[in-house]
Design a protein that fits this description.
Shape of chain C: globular
Number of helices of chain C: 7
Radius of gyration of chain B: 26 Å
Number of strands of chain B: 1
Structural class of chain C: alpha+beta
Number of strands of chain C: 7
Distance between the termini of chain C: 94 Å
Number of domains of chain B: 2
Shape of chain B: globular
Helix content of chain C: 10-25%
Largest sheet of chain B: none
Oligomer: heterotrimer
Largest sheet of chain C: 3 strands, antiparallel
Largest interface: A-B, 61 and 54 residues
Structural class of chain B: mainly alpha
Strand content of chain B: under 5%
Strand content of chain C: 5-15%
Chains: A alpha+beta, B mainly alpha, C alpha+beta
Number of helices of chain B: 14
């Protein structure tokens, strides 16, 4: 029995994986989570809606704006607020930028799992560019607290358009470079092809969503099955794999980065001047009721279930974290792997412990 | 042996030890700088000018660190293991020349001596794994031993190919034979095999699974800290330098190709500098490979060694033998080598284990189903 | 390919090197700082505690006092802040305090370095906060967002300033917490007698 303990250089956060091995083959694997449990859902019950947004920032701390978006959409649906057009476009642009940033982090860390020391530097270089754009608009590089119930907090600065076009040009080149470094490298292919396969029906049965599900061949994306916001106004592509192995999960994310760039371009072209925040009271008091919202975060289907009792603090907030549900498939994926593959397979699911443990 | 000879050897040995230590310090600094440049960052900058005193700081830190020993570890084995790894690395240098006259003792069987001594360090790794009383260390030690032993064969066979060309095992004679063209031009396949086998012997990326950080952290060296680890570290870098020097001596012409001008002391000095310059280039290539490639899994590593390198090294010897026996001109050997090298790369790329299809991801296009609302007259949108 | 990147200019810089330091964006959210009203020589902050109530981590405390300058008729503010403390170690830099402040009194400065020499030096008091505010104002040329409303200059009794609306007037929908008419039972004398007999 081998314990890949919480203090392991490669388990993406505090996560413990207990593996039973027979020689080099894994016989059974048991993930232990909870090392990062902060009681976020309970904390939400005692905070105003504007303060809950700061908590949601810190759930999936790599793709903050996607989480903020889910919560804001939930409250807006309860209060039946219509978000202004410009705010919708701004939200979409930022969520897609955050998707690229999150996938860049995945790329860097996955390269390091496989043993190459350079992809992490290249991935973080691109991520820094995106984060400095975020800083100029929202004021913070990571914990933005930018979306509000009814829109966004502040208007974009004047030089935003040219900064964004410079950024997207740089990102196009960066994504191509990162792709060229790792994707077709023979050793990387040898490490990831055919490893950790999961078939489409199995993935659906385990509740896997997001790029991990699409890599198994299932064309399922919340943006097309239940379109939210303004995603139905754009032409983009949804990459799917066919083998369901680690390489497919990796390459689906690389392709998604390119598609996010095309969405951003279209959104910037379609965006008009206008209001950025709907007429909402500063302290939101949704009517009594419950609502469930699904969004597509970079990890999968991020869901928020909100129960309100009419006061200015939520009664119950439940988060359906995609990484938590994707982890259920880990044991299935590890069924015929070597020890050295355990790290590769775990890395390809792309979990963030902040979501898993909340 | 007279007293003078004894003094000569003692001083020479000491000088060699000092020289190698300085080389190791330079190498650690160089590795961090080269890797940093590949990563578009700066590397050590603070300690000394551009970080040149950084290795000194590292040494001081390592030597003053507390020595932790697990209570149920085998003390004698634990203590001897670093020495068993370090001593062969040092002993190799007795016979490696840095110039025509810059050698401690040139043996007629120089190459044979080198290959024999270099195998001894495997035992040191096994002792390190066993003496640590830690199952990860044991696993790492066994893996390392397997890897090192299996890559000895291509290592030795590619050296043999060069020895056949020169009809001698004496290192100085080998370099003298390369006055006009290095043997890399004649046996590129041999160079490739030796480089790969050397990297695997050193335990460097892409073959560094036994002390990979993201898996069994540290391999056989987990339980070593402080000065013990410094000795292992020293041994690894001395070995890196040795492999690079061997590549230059055997394939890239040593201190010749071309022969340096002048004569006497200036000739020796210039030749040594030229030699060190070529070695530095080879070392940069080794660091560059480390920065670019991910690592192979242990079974892929072993299959690469046994299924690819071992047969290739035998074929290398066979074609060298054929060319020498029939007295063909040497460029035929070059052609044959290149053909085989091309075939190898083709096989690596088309290896059915790595890619049935290269790209199994398709992109489905989604079309927009809604249009943005047509803006009303300006007064209404401004609100 | 890595050979190409090896010859590019390095992306990183050494930490305290002032020349190569990236300038923070104008909107960068550093630690909160209080601002000083130059016209009347007092802080903008009146100690109303809205920011303290709305802070997610409850990192601030304050007290207000009667403004002596109001009695002298040199300022419009009736109350002024007496004591203000922020525990910078607890602040999560979320900017909610700035959003809810009615008086333009608090802003996120560009301070972000948290290392101090003393153990409790991260609990900053009013004087330090005002100093941070001054540095921020000099660095960015800050002006209040609603100068007429929040200025401290005392006004003549005749012309009262009209309040400036930040947002459009509200929609006329019933907010969720309008009291619903509830039937209240007024205890009659029968119930009282029933209680007496049953006890």
């Amino acid at each position: 029995m081998i314990n890949m303990g919480p203090q392991h250089p490669s388990t993406h956060g505090v996560f413990r994986l207990v593996i039973w091995v027979d020689g080099e083959r894994i016989v059974k694997a048991e993930p232990h989570i909870g090392y990062l449990h902060r009681g976020s859902e309970k904390l939400c019950e005692d905070e105003l809606y504007s303060q809950v947004i700061t908590l949601f920032d810190r759930l999936d701390y790599v793709a903050n704006l996607n989480c903020e978006l889910a919560f804001c959409m939930a409250v807006e649906k309860l209060m039946e607020i219509e978000v202004p057009e410009r705010a919708q476009y701004i939200r979409t642009i930022f969520c897609e930028l955050n998707r690229i940033a999150s996938h860049m982090l995945f790329y860097g860390v996955y390269g390091m799992d496989a043993g190459a020391v350079t992809p992490i530097l290249y991935g973080f270089r691109e991520r820094e560019r995106i984060q400095s754009l975020f800083e100029s608009v929202t004021g913070a590089r990571m914990m933005h607290n930018y979306f509000r119930v009814g829109g966004v907090n502040e208007e974009l600065p004047d030089d935003f358009e040219q900064r964004l076009s410079k950024l997207t040009d740089g990102l196009k080149q960066g994504i191509d470079e990162c792709d060229g470094l790792l994707s077709q490298n023979e050793m990387f292919l040898a490490r990831t092809k055919g490893i950790g396969t999961i078939s489409g029906p199995d993935a659906i049965a385990f509740g896997v969503t997001g790029p991990a599900l699409r890599a198994s061949g299932v064309l399922e994306d919340v943006r097309i099955s239940e379109p939210y916001g303004i995603y139905d106004r754009f032409d983009y592509g949804i990459p799917t794999g066919s083998q369901g192995d680690c390489w497919d999960r990796y390459y689906v994310r690389v392709e998604e980065m390119r598609q996010s760039l095309s969405i951003i371009d279209q959104a910037v072209n379609q965006m008009e001047a206008g209001e950025i925040l709907a007429n909402v009271r500063r302290i939101a008091r949704p009517p009594k009721g419950e609502v469930y919202i699904r969004t597509e975060s970079p990890r999968g289907d991020f869901g928020v279930f909100l129960v309100s009792d009419g006061t200015d603090k939520p009664y119950r907030v439940k988060v359906r974290a995609p990484s938590f549900c994707n982890l259920q498939a880990l044991q299935h994926m590890l069924r015929e792997a070597y020890i050295a593959d355990a790290v590769i397979i775990l890395g390809s699911i792309d979990i963030v412990l902040g979501e898993v443990d909340r | 042996m007279t007293v003078e000879q004894g003094v000569y050897y003692a001083l020479g040995g000491l000088g060699l030890f000092v020289f190698l230590s300085v080389i190791v310090l330079i190498l650690t600094w160089g590795e961090r700088k080269v890797l940093a440049r590949i990563h578009m960052r700066m590397g050590p900058m603070r300690v000394g000018f551009q970080g040149t005193l950084q290795p000194l700081a590292d040494t001081i830190k390592l030597v003053t660190k507390e020595d932790i020993l697990p209570s149920w570890a085998d003390r004698r084995v634990y203590w001897i293991a670093p020495v068993a790894v370090f001593l062969p690395a040092l002993l190799l240098w007795v016979t490696i020349p840095l110039g025509r006259d810059l050698v401690l003792r040139n043996l007629e069987l120089g190459l044979f001596y080198i290959t024999a001594i270099s195998v001894l360090s495997v035992m040191g790794l096994l002792m390190a794994g066993w003496g640590s009383a830690n199952k990860y260390a044991m696993l790492g030690g066994l893996r390392a031993a397997g890897q090192l032993i299996s890559y000895e064969i291509p290592f030795i066979m590619s050296i043999l190919g060069v020895a056949m060309l020169v009809q001698s095992l004496n290192l100085i004679t080998i370099v003298d034979g390369q006055a006009n063209y290095g043997y890399a031009l004649v046996q590129p396949l041999g160079l490739f095999i030796f480089l790969m086998a050397g990297l695997a012997e050193l335990g460097r990326t892409p073959f560094d699974i036994h002390h990979a950080e993201s898996e069994l952290v540290g391999g056989p060296f987990i339980e070593y800290s402080g000065a013990h680890w410094a000795v292992f570290f020293l041994a690894e870098y001395i070995n890196t330098f040795t492999v690079a020097v061997l590549i230059v001596l055997l394939f890239l012409g040593g201190w010749r190709w071309p022969e340096m001008p002048f004569s006497g002391a200036a000739l020796s000095a210039l030749s040594a500098l030229w030699f060190l310059f070529k070695t530095a280039l080879v070392i940069c290539v080794i660091f560059w490979i480390r920065g670019t490639y991910p690592r192979l899994r242990i079974d892929q590593l072993m299959s690469f060694g046994w299924k690819m390198l071992v047969p290739l090294s035998f074929i290398n010897i066979v074609i060298t033998g054929i060319v020498l026996f029939y007295g063909w001109p040497l460029w035929t050997l070059t052609v044959l080598s290149l053909v085989l090298l091309g075939g190898t790369f083709y096989l690596i790329v088309k290896n059915p284990g790595t890619s049935i299809e290269r790209n199994t991801v398709t992109v489905h296009a989604i079309r927009a189903t809604a249009q943005p609302p047509v803006p009303e007259t300006a007064s209404e949108t401004e609100n | 390919m890595t050979l190409k990147t090896a010859f590019r200019k390095p992306v990183t810089a050494q930490y305290p090197d002032p020349k190569k330091r990236l300038a923070v964006a104008k909107r960068y959210m550093g630690f909160p700082a209080l601002l000083w009203d130059e016209d009347v020589d007092e802080p903008y902050c009146t100690g109303c505690m809205v920011c303290i109530r709305d802070c997610p981590t409850q990192c601030m405390t304050a007290e207000m006092k009667d403004n002596p300058k109001f009695a002298d008729d040199t300022s419009r503010r009736r109350k002024i802040v007496d004591y203000f403390e922020i525990n910078l170690g607890r602040c999560i830099l979320c900017q909610i305090c700035v959003d809810v402040c009615n008086f333009d009194a608090i802003e996120m400065s560009h301070e972000h370095e948290l290392s101090k020499f003393q153990r409790n030096d991260n609990r900053v008091d009013l004087a330090q906060l005002l100093k941070m505010g001054n540095e921020y104002r000099e660095k960015t040329g800050w002006t209040p967002k609603q100068p007429e409303k929040n200025s401290g200059i005392p006004i003549k009794k005749d012309d009262k300033p009209k309040p400036v609306r930040k947002r459009a007037p509200k929609k006329t929908t019933t907010p969720a917490n309008t009291p619903v008419a509830v039937e209240v039972e007024i205890p009659t004398e029968d119930a009282g007698e029933k209680a007496k007999t049953s006890s």
